[in-house]
Amino acid sequence: MNIKKNDNDSKIIISKTNSNKLKFNILILILLILSFKFNYFLENKSNFFFDKYETGIYNNIKQKLFKSNCSYMWGNQREFLNGIIRKYLPKKILELGVSHGGSSIIILNAIKDIKNSHLYSIDIDSSHFVGNCVRNNFPFLSDKWTLFKGNIAAKYIEKIGKNIDLVMIDTSHFEPGEILDFLLILPFVKEEAIIIFHDIDQQITKTKEKGMREEWAPYIIFNLIRGEKFFPSGDGMLNKNIGAIKLEKNQKRFVHDYCRALGGQWQYFPKDKHIQLIQKYFEKYYDNTCQMILNETINFNRQFIKNNPKENFYEKINRKRDNKKY
Ligand SMILES: C[S@@+](CC[C@H](N)C(=O)[O-])C[C@H]1O[C@@H](n2cnc3c(N)ncnc32)[C@H](O)[C@@H]1O
User: 20 to 30 Å CA-CA from 221: which of 25, 97, 160, 194?
Assistant: First the structure.
């Protein structure tokens, strides 16, 4: 009897163990499915493909822009710029670096139907060709556009004012270039604003083409800025050449890191009138630490350029541009 009873007991124990195992396995399976779904969600979230978003809007000007030769961007970069504007529907937009106006045209076309949206563009150059493609080829897009030319952002930004939703930066590419330009706009952007940089992987192309260390500024500052990063779709990760950042909240925490990025050997030394504007701007909008970093860097680089005049690329860049036919 006892033995039989024990037999039954052990059967019960075995079946209970089996059912526990089954429950455990089901639980593991559910966890696996959930983690897979979560990863899939995360991946899709960070890789939201703006270049596939509302491309129809960009297609309205695609052929004309292509034929005009006005744009420096590749096709999927133009779609990326269009898509990100369409996704966030920004009202106040700032662009640094206009040249003929190729990127301005894409932005202006993307905000055509966004009520009260406006693009402010700034170019350091005062030449007649700055923005000429908007005026000559796409004049019907110019009613939401204000162009400032002949100076740096520090000169115009107070006129433009705070609460900027989105900034597109595509300026000199040589240090201090975009590092400085970003610091000039940061106090004027909204929390969680979108900052787009072009030519963030140009340093790779330049190394391949020329075997030279060139055009690192956008790469350095883009990677340093804290926030969620977005890139166009397509193969590879280091040849995207355009990227966007949705700024993390409370950027004040990171400002000293951004200022320290100014601290290396500059590839060109800005004109004295620009240096004075920048120093005044820092006195007004940044703390002592950033002001000290800026001033020490200016002194170091001023001396360095004096001792190594060939290192000042600024004149070279300008000369190269002036020789172009437009
Ligand atoms: C690469 S082009 C811009 C191309 C334009 N974004 C496009 O996609 O068609 C660079 C322009 O930036 C301007 N630039 C250079 N440094 C600048 C600065 N610190 N602030 C404003 N513009 C700057 C140059 O004069 C030049 O016209």
Answer: 160
